[in-house]
Amino acid sequence: MTGPISQALAAFRAKPQAAGWLTLPFFKDGSAEAVAAKVDAVVASGVQVLPPPDLVFTSLTLTPLDRVKVVVLGQDPYPTPGDAHGLAFSYRGTRRLPASLRTILTEMAADLDVPMPKSGDLTQWAKQGVLLLNTALTVEAGKSGAHMKFGWSELVDQAVAAISERQPAVVFLLWGAPARKRAALVDRRKHLVIEAGHPSPLNRLKDFRGTRPFSRANAWLAEKGLAPVDWRLDA
C-alpha cells in the first residue's frame, strides 16, 4: 500500500491542470515517485509532514505551466501545522503574518499605493498565473528545512527551465540567494528577471524593501500585451 504523498502524487497526475508539468523529466523518470517515497517513509515513522498531502502540489495545480506569467520561488513550507497550504510564502494561519510575508505585503502596499491586506492567503495570485513554488514541497512539523535535500529541487530547476523555454513572456521574481542562483536558467532575451534580497528580517542587507517588484512586473506585462496581476488580496 502506498503512502499519502505517493497517493497525492497519483491524484495530481490525474488532473488536467497537471498536463504541462508532467512533461518534465522529474515526473517521467521516476524522480517524483522516489521523492514521494522518501516523504512517505518519514510519515510512516510517525513524524507529521506539512502541508497536508492533498495540498502538496497546490502550486502546480492552481498555476498550470501554460498559464504562468510570474514566478516567485520560496524555500520550504511553514513548519507550523495549519500555516502552509502548498503555495510559497502563502499563509492560512490565525496568528500574525509570518515576517517574510509581512515584508512582501508591506512592499506591495507601498509599491501600488493600496491598503495593507489583512489576508496572507496568496491563492488569488496563483489563480492569475503567479507560480508560487517552494524549493521543497514538504517539511516536518517544527523542523524547517528538513526536506530540502530530498530531491524536490530537481523539480524546481526543471520547472524554471521549462517555463523559460516554453512561455513567451514571464516575470521571474527571484528573492534571496537560493532563488537568484536560478536566474542562470532563464532566457533574459524573452523574460524579465527582477532580483532582490530575501524579504526575511534576518537579511542583514535589507535589500528587498523599495525594489517595487509588483509595479515593475505589471508594467512589463502590459508592454508585452498581457493582463497585469491584481496583487490586492482583500479586493
CATH topology: Uracil-DNA Glycosylase, subunit E
| Number of β-strand runs | 6
3D shape = globular
Helix tally equals 9
Termini Cα gap: 44 Å
User: How would you state the average pLDDT, rounded?
Assistant: 96
CATH class categorisation = Alpha Beta
| Strand percent estimate | 5-15%
Largest sheet: 4 strands, parallel
Q: Give the number of domains.
A: 1
User: What are the secondary-structure elements, in order, as H or E?
Assistant: HHHEHEHHEEHEHEH
Estimated structural class = alpha/beta
Protein name: Uracil-DNA glycosylase
Domain Uracil-DNA glycosylase-like: 61-221
Pfam families: UDG (PF03167)
Subcellular location: Cytoplasm
What does this protein look like?
The protein is of the alpha/beta class and 235 residues long. The protein has one domain (4-223): 3-Layer(aba) Sandwich (Uracil-DNA Glycosylase, subunit E), CATH 3.40.470.10. It contains nine helices and six strands, in the order αααβαβααββαβαβα. The chain has helices at 4-13, 25-28, 31-44, 58-62, 99-112, 123-127, 152-166, 177-180, 213-223; strands at 49-50, 70-74, 130-134, 139-140, 171-175, 192-196. The chain has a four-stranded parallel sheet. Helix 1 (4-13) packs antiparallel against helix 3. The longest helix is centred in the C-terminal third of the chain and has 15 residues, at 152-166. It starts with a helix and ends in a 12-residue tail after the last helix.
